[in-house]
Automatic annotation (TrEMBL):
This is Transposase. InterPro entries: Homeodomain-like_sf, RNaseH_sf, Tc1-like_DDE_dom, Transpos_IS630-like, Transposase_5, Transposase_Tc1-like, WH-like_DNA-bd_sf. GO terms for molecular function: DNA binding. Residues 144-295 form the Tc1-like transposase DDE domain. Residues 64-132 form the Transposase Tc1-like domain.
Length: 334
């Protein structure tokens, strides 16, 4: 007996004709020479005006519009809060139905991007800075050494990996995630050019002007030799108090190192911020047990940064500036 997919055009036409004559599926199958299930499937496929299978949706278009308004009013609410507000509006639906309707609308739960909060004066200065640098070429940006500090924690917050488990396995040691109230962390200073990264400096204390100048002396200068050799370069850092202190400005003047003017509160314009993100993503599966193991993991991951990654990030500067101009000085997606 042939399957539905094996039925020939002639067999299908014969089934349709016999069906119109009022023959039973058993008789049709015998005359055509196929199984009764094949006849049944073919007839069902050809049937027109069939009602939709499954339960009827319990929510109307009006209900869905109300749900979309609730979601857009506060995008930081969880599904439980949205479901409660939707049912208060008079909709009878389960929490899972609420979640499905949100997914049908195209909403997905994601970690929100972080953007700096800028006041009007800062936006104006960012816009003026971007307009001043809009004609810089990739070759000019390749002469800039970008620098920044970043904090690394042993625990990377509550957005870590998920776990697959069955009912009753919640307390299984293999299904638990370790947590501490005050996770150990380290602060790291680093620098990069369009070709490579410089040596890292692990900061042991609060960074004031004196500490920062020691970092410059023992880590930035060697990084400059490593990245630029004897060629000229421009140093970039943000406007942190230790960076903008008078004694720090004097240090740069004494060493003959030009500084790139930099707008306040603008991490989105600094490609090394993206580099820190790359390092932290690569460390996502690491499980250091203490600060020393964390430092070793950071060093090993930093050493894996390729020249291509550095070049791609620095080459993004014209796009970052164009985005800042288009946003009229507001924070951008970078």
């Amino acid at each position: 007996m042939g399957k539905t997919a094996d039925l020939t055009t002639v067999q299908k036409m014969t089934i349709d004709t016999l069906k119109k004559e009022g023959k039973t599926q058993k008789v049709i199958a015998k005359e055509v020479g196929c199984s009764q299930s094949s006849v049944s499937k073919h007839i069902n496929r050809e049937a027109k005006g069939r009602k939709r299978c499954g339960r009827k949706e319990c929510t109307s278009k009006r209900d869905k519009r109300a749900l979309e308004r609730i979601v857009k009013q506060n995008r930081l609410k969880n599904v439980g809060e949205i479901h409660k507000e939707w049912t208060v509006a008079g909709v009878s639906a389960s929490r899972s139905t609420t979640h499905r309707r949100m997914q049908d609308m195209g909403f997905s739960c994601r970690i929100p991007r972080v953007k700096p909060l800028l006041n009007k004066r800062q936006r104006q200065k960012r816009l003026a800075w971007a307009q001043d640098k809009k004609d810089w070429t990739a070759a000019e940006w390749s002469k800039v050494m970008f620098s920044d500090e970043s904090k690394f924690c042993i625990s990377f917050g509550n957005q870590g990996p998920r776990v697959w488990r069955k009912t009753g396995e919640a307390q299984n040691p293999r299904c638990l995630k370790s947590s501490v109230k005050f996770p150990q962390s380290v602060m790291v200073w680093g620098a990069m050019s369009s070709t490579a990264v410089g040596p890292l400096c692990f900061l042991r204390s609060r960074v004031n002007a004196a500490v920062y100048q020691e970092v410059l002396e023992h880590f930035m200068l060697p990084a400059a030799d490593q990245l630029y050799g004897g060629d000229d370069f421009i140093f970039q850092h943000d406007l942190a108090p230790a960076h903008s202190a008078k004694s720090t400005s004097t240090w740069f003047k004494d060493h003959g190192i030009p500084l790139l003017d930099w707008p306040a509160n603008s991490p989105d314009l600094n490609p090394i911020e993206n580099l820190w993100g790359i390092v932290k993503r690569k460390m996502r599966d690491a499980r250091p047990n203490n600060a020393e193991e964390l430092k070793a993991t950071i060093k090993a991951t930093w050493a894996l940064i390729t020249p291509e990654e550095c070049n791609r990030l620095v080459d993004s500067m014209p796009r970052r500036i164009a985005a800042a101009i288009q946003a009229k000085g507001a924070a951008t997606k970078y």
